[in-house]
Amino acid sequence: MDLGSTSTAEEPSLISFRVVSINRVPFLSAGRPLELKAATTTACAYRDLSYNNGLTGSLPRSIGNLTKLSNLILVGCSFSGPIPGTIGSLQQLSILSLTSNSFSGPIPPSIGNLSNLYWLDLSVNKLSGTIPVSPGLDMLVNAKHFHCGRNQFSGEIPSQLFNANMSLIHVLFDKNKLSGKIPSTLGLVKTLEILFLSNNQLTGPFPDLTGLNSLNHMDLSNNTFDKSDFPPWLGTLQSLETLMMEDTGLQGQIPNVFFSLPLLRKVVLRNNKLNGTLVVNSNNSNHLQLIDLQNNYITDYMVGKRFNSELILVGNPVCEGAHRTEPYCIIQQSNSSYSTEPKTCMQVTCKSHQISSPNCRCAYPYTGLLILGAPSFNVRNSNIYTSLENYLMRSFQSYQLPVDSVSLSKNPDDSFIILRLEVFPYGVEHFDRTGISGIAFVLSNMTFHPMKPFGPLFFIADPYSYFAESTGTKKSSSAGIIGVAVGCSLLVLLCLLAGIYAFHQKRRAEISDKQNNPFASWHRNESNGGAPQLKGARCFSFEELKKYTNTFSDANCIGVGGYGKVYRGTLPTEQLVAIKRAKQGSSQGDLEFKSELELLSRVHHKNVVSLVGFCFEQDEQMLVYEYIANGTLKESLSGKSGIRLDWMRRLRIALGAARGLQYLHELANPPIIHRDIKSNNILLDEYLNAKVSDFGLSKSIGDPENCHITTQIKGTMGYLDPEYCMTQQLTEKSDVYGFGVLMIELITAKQPIEKGKYIVREVRQKIDKTKDLYDLHEIIDPNILGTALKGLEKFVDLAMRCVEEEGAARPTMGEVVKEIENIMQIAGCNPNADSVSTSVCYEETSNHPYIEESLIMYSRTLAR
Asked: So which domain of life are we looking at (predicted)?
């Protein structure tokens, strides 16, 4: 393939194609020419040629002529040979992704000239040599991503590679041949979130990484470190979620404080020399999924009553003798091989080259190899493959791609997880070129992110030669005509039979509905009105929920309120749910039950708690919600949950809650007034995303023209709108007032009414806009005071506008959302980032290929 065109233009900037003239070229057959040309325009500074198997040979030196290029993405092509040193001439390059090719040789030191580089991804190639520094990667102080795993790099990790000026969040050098010790300078990179150095030949002691408070995931497994005790600094990493240190020479006892880390999920320390008694604090049992300590010297263990994680102690002294039959001493059978099971459907025989999908439909799937690049996943081991299938389908469906189903199969001999992926089209036998392009685009965007359960994923696609426009023949056309004729001949007979069948089915349905209507016994009176009107919610039986909660045991009780108790339950699918059980005989329970059931059955938003189903039998009223792992915002602000909320996290929580309320006010049909906005009704999920909850007092606005409701005053003291209290006129601005109080609570961590003082009045009296932080130092939460509080003054201004005495002077929730987004940008934080599980903000660039915003732009392009 010809990639060798050069030019003498003074301002080269454009990649032009002979084949097509679009920014993204998903399909180029082998032998078709592609040119890299210089030009004077800057219109096409973004180039993504991912998944073009026809792109072979080496990357030409003429790539250096494209000096206006900002993004160069060549994922999953067939390039080989060295990376040309001229790539250092691309001074405006922000993204360089050469993943999944066959590039060889060293990283050119000239790459250090790319001062604007944000994303460097060289993973899954055959690159070798040492890591270049001075000049080299150490000069990339603005880069946040070093993805260099699955290569053949050797030598020591240079101490010069890391310095305090760097803003790295991902350092991935796993599965190389690196040797020597991990440099202590790594501890200077305070922004670091992901560290993968597994499967190298590293030696020496563990460096002290105290202070890496943003570190989420660390994998140092399968290296030959010097024997050393469990590093005490690991217990100080408040954001740590996954720790993988298998076969690293660890010894001694694991400190008790380690398992108190608030976000800890998975700990794998197999094949070490750890000893003593394992002590796991029960307060964190809601987060922990796995503790794997196979083949150590653990002699005993102590866990709390609420501990329900998977614990593996096989190969330890504690599993000898009478304990050998305990669950933690038995190796659970894992799927060494796997293939997607077909659904319950009639198996079909497909014609040549077609494959039957899991839904038993013959089609020509898009196929390839899916490589699971991460050493750990945020799902239980037993569910990895089915969870991945569901994850892929959700990703495709989110961007309206024409995918019917996916099928995965695994080779049991793989040293790391490589899956065969088949993606089946929806409603047709073939994908078109747009559909294939979208699928490949989605798969190339699945990089590692704390919010996502899988990643990074690499997809190596097979050529697709079954496009609908290239497979039609006269024979298939004739067959279609015959099929239409036969179908028409049968239509009259089918209609007749269907009419008879429908008549009988209608009669049966009427009888069945009378027998099975769960609200047939609903008490109709003036206090609770008619039976709830639902728009889709699963009806659980009492016996089912009794089983899922272990007979509503006290151990599963996670909350108590005026309405009743809330229990944690586990469905057969292993989905955790929260079950709100009303007090029997409570008329107030009738009202709240009906209100929440009707409202939540028709609202769907990521910042509003989801309703799974309900139970209404045996005089029981129960609502089944998605389980929200980190409890209420109030618990976190008070310190009860043990979760540290820095300023950036609080901004994201405020934005999430505001977006949930905006949805209720502006997008729900009809609009909904929550009426009880407070920190106790804002829940934080496992990634600290805010979700509005508790709709027992909520009201629908039946007539959009009549934007107020005359109603009895209800709510929580301290959050109540004073105008609503005086006039009994409930409006959306009443929620805005409660949200303003919530914003002040985020700043101060004080309850609205505390020791006889009203926090709104306290803030209003103390504000001095001529001084730093408006002179609110005395009442700002000490946990954030002293840290960078960028945007706090504007946040206070917005909060005080929300708590104006008159509702007309308050902003709408839509305006509140926009202002908080602006405040986050002032603070250097991307308001559209997915997760708040870390305090680090993602300063994403436009057209970034690895974030979901680019997928949204792409799906909009397809829609046009």
From this structure: Eukaryota
